[in-house]
Specification:
Elements (H helix, E strand, L loop, with lengths): L3 H5 L19 E9 L3 E9 L2 E7 L10 E11 L7 E3 L6 E13 L7 H14 L1 E8 L3 E8 L7 E6 L23 H6 L11
Antiparallel strand pairs: 1-2, 1-6, 2-3, 3-4, 4-9, 5-6, 6-7, 7-8, 8-9
Length: about 200
């Protein structure tokens, strides 16, 4: 995997965004960041092969299995981006970022398997344009899928909840505080010097 596109779009002398990082767990991580850029959206990121495969979800995730959300695939992000919360200055992606949810995930057909085997099947699934996985987050739990669409652009996917006992029609995006700092976007904007506690995992 490459971060060439990611690095080409950023000036790290001005932006506090991370430029690298290595996986530090035997489990696959995911993060969802709420990003108040030119348009408010949620960045859905899945660890795979040492980077974060990333999709911008304009309306945010839903826990209602009858709802499908447009998800536009963007450039891979570095592993350490999962920790990023703060303000991106003027330029690409300018705006406030919060860690809206985070946790671990597994491919639905290889639950409990080792990470290397899981990544192998996820790599194939990504190439095939269909990922089916289980999220173990602080807000999102249970089965989800993200599927590449046709006719809406090369990077267009759909993110949706797979029906299970976590299926819920309530609007999960109303839970508007960071799972890291317990602050809203406005509170983060007022004080961007957020210190993240060390990972217990």
């Amino acid at each position: 995997m490459t971060l060439v596109k990611y690095k080409a779009k950023r000036n790290f002398k001005e932006s506090p965004e991370p430029s690298g990082g290595k996986a530090d767990s035997d489990k696959l991580r995911f993060v969802i960041q709420k990003h108040d850029a030119s348009h408010l959206h949620y960045d859905f990121r899945l660890e795979l092969d040492g980077v974060l495969k990333s999709w911008a979800v304009p309306k945010g995730p839903s826990t209602d299995s009858s709802v499908k959300r447009l998800a536009m695939m963007v450039e891979d992000h570095p592993y350490d981006y999962r920790n990023f919360e703060g303000i991106i200055p003027n330029g690409y992606g300018a705006g406030t970022v919060m860690v809206w949810d985070e946790g671990f995930y597994e491919p639905a057909d290889l639950v409990g398997s080792d990470k290397k085997k899981q990544e192998k099947i996820l790599r194939k699934n990504l190439d095939d344009g269909k990922l089916h996985f289980i999220l173990y987050g602080k807000k999102l739990k249970g089965e989800f899928a993200i599927i590449k669409t046709s006719g809406k652009g090369e990077n267009s996917w759909l993110l949706f909840k797979v029906k299970d006992h976590f299926d819920n029609k309530a609007d999960i995006t109303l839970k508007d505080k960071s799972v890291v700092s317990k602050r809203t976007l406005k509170q983060i904007e007022k004080n961007s010097a957020i210190k993240r506690p060390s990972d217990a995992s």
